[in-house]
Amino acid sequence: MPETRTWQVRWQSAQRSARVAARRAQRSARTAGRTAHRAAFAASDAARQAWRAAPRHTRQTWRLTALSAATGLAVAVVAVAAAGPWDSGQRTAERAAAAGVPDTGGEHHDDGRAPRPVPSAPPVLAALSGPAHGAAGPGTAPAPTGAGLADALAPLLADPALGPLRTASVLDIAAGRQVFGAEQDEAATPASTVKLATAVAALSKLGADHRIDTSVVMGGKDRIVLVGGGDPTLTARAPVPGAGEQPAGLRALADDTARVLKRRGITKVGLGYDTSAYTGPVEHPIGPNENLAPVTALMTDEARLDGSDHGPAPRATDPAGDAAGVFAGLLRQRGITVDGDSGEATAPQRPDRIATVHSLPLSALVERMLTNSDNDIAEALARQTARASGQPASFDGAATAVRDALAAQHLPLAGAVFEDGSGLDRGDKVSANLLSHLLLAAAAPDKPDLRPVVTGLPVAAFTGTLSGRYVGDTAGAGAVRAKTGTLTGVNTLAGTVVDADGRLLAFAFMTTGTTDAQAAQKALDRMASTVANCGCR
């Protein structure tokens, strides 16, 4: 087969883009009028029937609501006008902002600033939940062909920035089938994309609404025990006003504990702490590291010593002891004397629980883990999966539990090895086929508990570990949603994208043996952007 030259690839891409634009315009012109007419008629008829059937006081309420809505609409029109012109559902100012993001990409290059606003990109599950980009309906957008995707992706897989091992898998989510693959069954080091496996395992075993408890129980006469349940997001910081539901707070736990003790006439106690929810070594095999605290069932703020809430940070060496010390100080501030220093203890088998705080739901923990590539949450969720499976809550027990949970979902596990939940261990091995099928499972309409895996993916150029990538990339910025993975010599990217025809696709690109991390990241990003910009038929 003759070599495909750069100008040929660009010419083919331009032809595809022109065909896509023509198809969109035709579909929009044909359907816009019919859809608007039907919707207006149905809404008008329904409104008339509802008005006739409503009692008098309800009609008065509706009149007031209509007046308020009209006022709000007027304000909204002014706000939209001030925000700038719109183009295909996206403010042109946002598009310009996406193109102007500074090049600092990568999950190990977080600058600590707040995430940028997410643009009006195609919905995460557009091809399943409704039309996108003028598509006729759920799953009815034209599907890409294997030959079309091969023409677009094969030249990019030959990029010299990639390492010797290069694997890829692209799935059509509506059809549930692979449309492109390159060594897709070859197991490779996933780095942080293994968090997708951790997330699916935890959600499938525990459910999206599961919460992790931190409790205080009576440990004998005038003695209490702080019992860690494994919530790494337990915080000793003051709540943020107006921030909605927040992580479990050690301050709230101290409030409740002091209140109950005083009600019982107790103002002086001894304090112990129980971390027996987890077993085995607390230190990750990579040793002390700013990317992960010692893995223990009791800690506050991920044992961070610099006040940060994500990214690398110096960590405490004894998170449980430090958390107990902070708790003792909080009790003293609330009028409870803590006698002596706190020490390790074991809670009674049938404890008298006097106070409990609950973590955010597992769905929120999974989203935070994936958006920020949070290693502490990943290791915690792997151990929570082990506990729910009857396995030891250790590195080894978590590895067994994660694999078993994925096997129960009938996922392709050939060659898969799980040494940890975070991907920091180079012994982890998964295939591109497994990564793409994890995303396929998460997008399945009959598996709503897995949906946080999709909604938690970083958005290219705007959130999480993709906030500094896709610079000047109008096809990928705001459209690609993907979990990143980076270790020395390892670069991976796995996520979802809606292609130019409105078809939702899952992809996984992996490479090992890279020598320039930034160049390798950009090569993977180009592949994802190409899928987003492709009609590929």
TrEMBL record:
KW Iron (keyword) present: no
Keywords, in A-Z order: Carboxypeptidase, Hydrolase, Membrane, Protease, Transmembrane, Transmembrane helix
Compositionally biased residues, Basic and acidic residues: 105-114
InterPro entries, sorted: Beta-lactam/transpept-like, Peptidase_S13
Region Disordered, residue ranges: 88-143
SUPFAM superfamilies the record matches: beta-lactamase/transpeptidase-like (SSF56601)
Biased composition, class Low complexity, residue ranges: 123-143
Transmembrane segments: 64-86
UniProt KW Thylakoid keyword: no
GO MF entries: carboxypeptidase activity
Homology family: Belongs to the peptidase S13 family.
Protein name, as recorded: D-alanyl-D-alanine carboxypeptidase
Species name: Streptomyces albospinus
